[in-house]
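R.M. (postdoc): so does anyone remember the format we settled on? I'll just put the structure tokens first.
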């Protein structure tokens, strides 16, 4: 018992003296209103990334991810509105493996196609909304001098990840539309490796936004506050 008490006391004294790297961001140059404004914006971005993962999971559960067979940053923002436009979109879908697979077990009607198409459309538009919600305020805060050097580097990384995420999403979907990529299975699937890449970037963005958001409300710590191990003895 005495040996345990001595060891805990020694460890406690040691931890009090050990400096640790400051992971927080020094935002002392901002007033309280500015600091909270940036923090809440980052929390919003983190929440939207969380929502994107949830919507993406729902899209996958409803087998809707391969319903949009083309990708364009701007032109695909407009959904089909007329009956003719829906029929044209449906005809494009029929050219790909998923239609052949689904129609072999059940009738794939236009109304069913509209449902899965709208699911995937919502997922893509949510991703575009994240880009707008992040990039526009980021440019404003950067121009106003709200970001210290460390924050500028992190926001540059976030910008690169967001811009890459759209292309990686299409790269993933494309693997499920290519018959040669599905030759070993009768069920059209996207590459699990591309899917993992797409999901990993979403997790990285969520973590980046959440951590930096918290950093605007919690002051960085220069040392670890050592636990008082003696209280547990």
């Amino acid at each position: 018992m005495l040996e345990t008490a001595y060891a805990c006391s020694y460890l406690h004294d040691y931890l009090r003296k050990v400096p640790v790297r400051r992971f927080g961001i020094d935002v002392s140059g901002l007033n309280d209103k500015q600091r909270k404004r940036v923090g809440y914006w980052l929390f919003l971005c983190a929440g939207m990334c969380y929502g994107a993962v949830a919507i993406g999971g729902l899209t996958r559960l409803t087998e809707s991810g391969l319903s949009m067979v083309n990708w364009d940053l701007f032109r695909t923002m407009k959904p089909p509105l007329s009956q003719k436009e829906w029929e044209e979109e449906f005809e494009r879908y029929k050219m790909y493996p998923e239609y052949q697979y689904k129609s072999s077990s059940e009738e794939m009607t236009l109304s069913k196609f509209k449902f899965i198409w709208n699911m995937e459309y919502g997922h893509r538009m949510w991703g575009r909304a994240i880009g707008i919600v992040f990039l526009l305020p980021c440019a404003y805060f950067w121009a106003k001098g709200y970001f210290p050097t460390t924050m500028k580097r992190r926001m540059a990384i976030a910008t690169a990840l967001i811009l890459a995420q759209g292309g990686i999403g299409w790269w993933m979907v494309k693997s499920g539309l290519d018959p040669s990529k599905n030759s070993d299975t009768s069920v059209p699937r996207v590459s699990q490796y591309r899917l993992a890449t797409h999901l990993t970037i979403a997790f990285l963005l969520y973590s980046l936004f959440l951590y930096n958001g918290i950093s605007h409300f919690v002051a960085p710590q220069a040392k670890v506050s050592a636990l008082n191990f003696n209280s547990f003895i």
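R.M.: ...and that's the designed sequence above, right after the tokens. Also worth knowing: Residues 18-22, 226-233 have pLDDT under 50 and may be disordered. The CA atoms of residues 29 and 137 lie 19 Å apart.
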